[in-house]
Design brief:
The complex is a heterodimer of chains A (377) and B (660). Chain A is mainly α. Chain A has one domain (8-376). Chain A is built from 14 helices and two strands. A two-stranded antiparallel ribbon of chain A has the order 1-2. In chain A, a hairpin with a 4-residue loop joins strand 1 and strand 2 (119-120). In chain A, helix 5 (122-139) runs antiparallel to helix 6 (147-165), helix 5 (122-139) packs antiparallel against helix 13 and helix 12 (273-306) runs parallel beside helix 14. The longest helix of chain A has 34 residues, at 273-306. The radius of gyration of chain A is 21 Å and the shape is globular. With 660 residues, chain B is α+β, with helices and mostly antiparallel strands. In chain B, strands 2, 3, 4, 5, 12, 20 and 21 form a seven-stranded mixed beta sheet that branches. Classes of the chains: A mainly alpha (377), B alpha+beta (660). The interface between A and B is large, with 69 and 61 residues.
Chain lengths: 377, 660
């Protein structure tokens, strides 16, 4: 669908230099798709923030930073990335533990490390570090992983997940868990092991339930029956369904969404921006956005298919599937298919940190594709 | 292993082409099987991506095409806003039905954050008008930020004057409004304030732990005492109503107004209303008339008085002085006021009756008397000479009696009546610290009694174990025989709460029947609803104590108030009922050997604490009392208070027995 540069160059003959080592790596299709989605995001955001120019400018600045991160990440050769992975993972884990220690000292939930000039959320780093660590661990081992290796992989995923869930940041924890689990899935675990994990998960649900805070429990409750709690968590779902449904096929038109503009819809510039788009641009608008997302995922999976070693394959596949997971969880939440967890719509929701993480991830995809080495033809 | 080769092959391949073609056949095979495996996973993943996408699109079609009509009407025709209907907080009554905590109508200053253009500026202007307090500026900002969209945030309650002052300037404050609401009011003010507690504004920290939707529209939450410990019962359940509003947010249709017939209903406009469920009313065991008498008797002192009904554990009165006016909190006590109240050296917010710990002094003697009889450590008929001091064998240190010249020959009865220290040094020595500690624990000392409000103190029953755990230096961890001695007269490490003292006196009075102390004795669903009475909860009492042991101790405690030499006689002269009591003085600081205790010459805060425990009528006790007067000097100060409480309770003309 999106022929990468490899096909063109490989046809020209055998080259033993890694592709792109001497030039700037730019993946045109990834770049184009992300830019288009971000622009759509800005258009919707302008409406969702009641035509606020300030917020529009702020979000554009975030885009600029995120795209710079994307371009920088594209230049990092995957081999170097593989060598750095254990350090990056340990760094992220160390920061999480540090935060936990500081949090217990100040007796409050804290997700942020404050460096004065900028703030940093170690759990964001984990979104990338976990799939990287999984891919790194399997990179020198035979696929599929043995049961023992699987246990190591599970702890790579679960330890950071539990720490983040403890912050408490359920949304990010779910995303980190998904990123790790999807990468492990790509490493090829057998059906029996998969069933075992499902069983273990089923057993751990009651445990998790005990562990959850009241507000998290109430989210699960309201998920099954949002109308039961119209003042609490159910309010968001009720209003977002009205927003989506009243958008119809063609939408009410840009800046004409009543749900958003009369401020019935909560969190409309962040987690619920999908509903704003659905109200103003209708089913067709949403389909366009979803197709663009799907194209990005397809491009990522294609890069993963083309990748040559275990590390890059697993990483590229894992990152692409995780991206799709983000989209699905947010859209599913907004239209009432999934419980409300605080997951933003990738590249569209207002907010800087998660966007930088996403674009670094796409940068890695571009790098994996652009730095491929040619084997025998 | 082969996988490793496969991996190195790539590295090699990267460095030079020379050996690539040679043995790559086998290696490539592995490589290919992995590729196949990976490809199969990728295909499965892609398949799931497509399935989920179809699911998502299906859902969108359902919402946006199939149900379009319904949602379109909801969004365009009806502009629904959901307004929370906060429940009315439950009332609190005393045992005779006297109202202790009620709700009064008031004006509230509220903010709808979305409609406020500039929060900072708005607050500054409100502060300039004196409607909000500058000291609470940041707190309000935090509160507003932590609330959900479109939720009204109550800023504070307004006086009539403030409300009218704001009303004329309302147009200058978009997003700020006044609304009618209810404010908690405590008709008796400082009387019983520590028991009832108070409510205060919900803080951002509270929002983290409470069910936020159940508190939508509620601005206050229980902060201490009954109000805090029974928050769940008192609060009730929130309701809501749907309103139709126009684009400016003005209410066009409010079906819920004045129709509280059913709990949930759908009007013909499909607008739903769910009425709130008011909180339960609580009935306390407290007798507010007795509370008034006790608090008046304690006026001017620092200390605590607590009375318990021995046969149920009901707390009849609970005084902690100095007290405070809880109504200051509900009106939105400013942070500055709170700091003043909190930094008062007399600490009026501190509930001395349940959380204050004091050395029990001689009030422990009856309990050690029981232990001595039970363990047969002394012969009740035997008389021991009291020369005014006691020395351990092989030690010259003199442990002094409070009476310089000594009491002469003493048996258990006389030793209790006259509160002879030397006798109880002897008792302590023969029982040993382990059995002393056990006898105190049997009567509930050293652990919380289980009163139904938070904040109870544990006190300390000293033991070898306790000392080992609580001292860091090795040489301090050893238990010394001298420490056993002074434990015998309630000095040293032992600490008790007034509640524990009253509780233990009640157990003594009922001859070992022990009931868990409680404040709430019943509840009521709604005003005039059926009252539900709670059964008293009996606890395991002291074991192996025979009735005649109690009899002996009761006789001695009667002697304290009736015999000529009794230490509690003056305060109890001429009571028409018989009082079993015991005096106590607790040293706040130690005298050097040979130094005389002279009340006049020492600092008021270093004077001894005065204690008194009692139950009456002695034959069949209806009330057990413990009073502690901090730095009260001799026990007389406490005994006088006990007398007033007993008179009021047992002789009060309008005394009403508790229902069922």
């Amino acid at each position: 669908m999106f022929p990468g540069s490899r096909d063109i160059e490989s046809s020209s003959g055998i080259s033993l230099k890694p592709l792109g080592s001497s030039r700037l790596v730019i993946d045109p299709s990834l770049l184009l798709l992300t830019v288009v989605i971000c622009c759509i995001g800005l258009v919707v955001l302008y409406s969702a923030t009641n035509e606020s120019n300030t917020l529009l400018v702020r979000q554009s600045v975030r885009f600029a930073v995120a795209f710079a991160a994307f371009l920088v990440a594209s230049q990092v050769p995957p081999d170097a990335l593989r060598l750095w992975t254990p350090w990056i993972f340990c760094l992220a884990l160390g920061l999480l533990l540090l935060l936990m220690a500081m949090g217990s000292a100040s007796q409050g939930a804290n997700r942020w490390l404050d460096f004065g000039v900028f703030q940093f959320q170690p759990s964001e780093l984990m979104k990338l570090a976990v799939p990287m660590a999984v891919a790194w661990f399997m990179s020198e081992r035979r696929l599929p992983p043995t049961l023992g290796q699987l246990l190591v992989l599970l702890s790579i995923v679960l330890v950071p997940t539990l720490i983040i869930a403890d912050q408490p940041d359920l949304g990010t924890a779910v995303l980190v868990l998904a990123a790790g689990a999807l990468t492990i899935m790509l490493a090829g675990i057998g059906l029996r092991v998969l069933l075992g994990i499902v069983f273990a998960a089923a057993v751990s649900v009651p445990l998790l339930w005990n562990y959850m805070l009241p507000y998290q429990r109430s989210r699960v409750f309201t998920f099954f029956n949002p109308e039961s709690d119209p003042l609490g968590a159910g309010y968001n779902i009720i209003q977002s369904k009205i927003a989506l449904g009243s958008g119809g096929l063609f939408g009410k038109g840009w800046l004409n969404g009543t749900q958003a503009h009369l401020e019935f819809l909560p969190e409309r510039s962040t987690d619920f921006i999908f509903a704003v788009m659905g109200e103003e641009f209708g089913l067709l608008g949403l389909l366009l956005l979803l197709i663009l997302y799907l194209a990005l995922v397809a491009r990522g999976l294609y890069i993963s298919y083309q990748a040559q070693d275990t590390f890059t394959r697993l990483l590229a596949g894992g990152l692409s599937l995780t991206f799709f997971f983000y989209v699905f969880v947010n859209a599913g939440m907004v239209c009432g298919l999934l419980p409300v967890v605080g997951v933003p719509l990738p590249l569209v929701s207002a907010g800087g940190t998660s966007m930088v993480t996403l674009m670094v991830g796409f940068g890695m995809l571009a790098a994996i594709n652009g730095h491929r080495k040619l084997l025998a033809p | 292993m082969a996988v490793n080769f496969c991996f190195y092959e790539q590295i090699v391949g990267y460095q030079g082409e020379g050996n690539l073609g040679m043995d790559s056949n086998i290696l490539l095979k592995d490589h290919q099987s992995e590729t196949r495996l990976f490809l199969s996973r990728l295909i499965i993943a892609a398949f799931f991506v497509l399935v989920l996408m179809v699911l998502l699109v299906g859902r969108l079609i359902q919402l946006q095409v199939i149900d379009y009509q319904r949602f379109s009407e909801l969004s365009q025709g009806n502009r629904l806003r959901i307004e929370p209907l906060p429940p009315t907080r439950g009332l609190v009554f005393d045992r005779n039905g006297v109202l202790l905590a009620e709700n009064l109508p008031t004006w509230q200053l509220v903010m709808i954050p979305e409609e406020v253009e500039d929060l900072e500026n708005t607050l500054v202007r409100l502060e300039a008008l004196g409607l909000t307090n500058a000291a609470e500026h940041q707190e309000i900002v935090d509160l507003v930020r932590s609330r959900r969209d479109f939720e009204r945030v109550q800023l504070r309650n307004l006086s009539e004057a403030d409300a009218s002052r704001f009303a004329v300037r309302r147009h200058q404050f978009p997003g700020v409004d006044i609304q009618e609401g209810l404010i908690r009011h405590y008709p008796f003010g400082a009387i019983g304030a520590h028991t009832i507690g108070y409510v205060g504004s919900i803080s951002p920290e509270d929002l983290q732990r409470i069910d936020r939707s159940n508190y939508a529209g509620t601005s206050q939450i229980g902060r201490s005492g009954i109000e805090r410990s029974y928050e769940q019962s008192l609060h009730g359940e929130v309701g809501y109503r749907q309103q139709v509003v126009n684009a400016q947010g003005r209410i066009l249709l409010d079906p819920a107004a004045n129709r509280p017939e059913s709990t949930t209903e759908l009007s013909q406009n499909n607008l739903e209303t769910k009425w709130p469920v008011p909180g339960d009313n609580l009935i306390l065991g407290l007798d507010v008339k007795l509370q008034l008498v006790a608090q008046e008797a304690m006026a001017g002192f620092r200390g605590a008085a607590i009375a318990i009904e021995p046969k149920t554990g009901d707390v009849l009165t609970l005084v902690s002085v100095p007290s405070f006016d809880p109504n200051r909190f509900t009106a939105g006590l400013s942070r500055a006021d709170f700091t003043i109240l909190g930094s008062d050296p007399d600490d009026p917010l501190f509930n001395r009756a349940i959380a204050g710990t004091y050395p029990p002094g001689s009030t422990v003697k009856p309990f050690f008397g029981i232990a001595a009889l039970k363990e047969k450590a002394i012969d009740p008929a035997h008389r021991e000479m009291c020369p005014g001091f006691f020395s351990l064998p092989g030690d010259t240190h003199r442990y002094r009696d409070w009476k310089a010249g000594g009491h002469g020959p003493m048996d258990l009865h006389d030793a209790l009546v006259q509160s002879c220290d030397v006798f109880f040094y002897q008792v302590a020595l023969s029982l040993g610290i382990d059995r002393l500690g056990e006898s105190l624990e049997n009567f509930g000392f050293g652990s919380t009694t289980g009163l139904d409000v938070v904040g109870e103190g544990h006190g300390i029953v000293p033991s070898r174990e306790w000392k080992k755990k609580n001292f860091s230096r090795r040489e301090d961890q050893v238990w010394f025989p001298g420490e056993t001695l002074i434990t015998g007269i309630g000095q040293g490490f032992a600490l008790v709460t007034p509640l524990q003292l009253a509780h233990a006196s009640a157990v003594l009075g009922t001859r070992g029947k022990r009931f868990k102390p409680r404040l709430v004795i019943g509840s009521q669903k709604g005003v005039g609803g059926q009252s539900i009475w709670l059964e008293p909860e009996e606890l395991a009492g002291p074991t192996n104590v025979e009735s005649e042991h109690y009899q002996k101790i009761h006789q001695a405690m009667l002697g304290v108030t009736e015999e000529t030499a009794g230490t509690g006689r003056n305060a109890m002269l001429g009571t028409p009922y018989r009082v079993a009591g015991k005096t106590g003085t607790a040293q706040v600081f130690s005298l050097a050997p040979g130094e005389e205790y002279d009340e006049e010459s020492i600092d008021e805060r270093l004077r001894d604490h005065a204690l008194f425990i009692a139950f009456a009528p002695a034959e069949d006790p209806e009330i057990a009392v413990a009073v502690v007067v901090e730095n009260g000097g001799g026990s007389g100060a406490a005994a006088t208070v006990v007398r007033k409480i007993l008179d009021a309770f047992l002789l009060g003309v309008d005394r009403v027995p508790r229902q069922p």
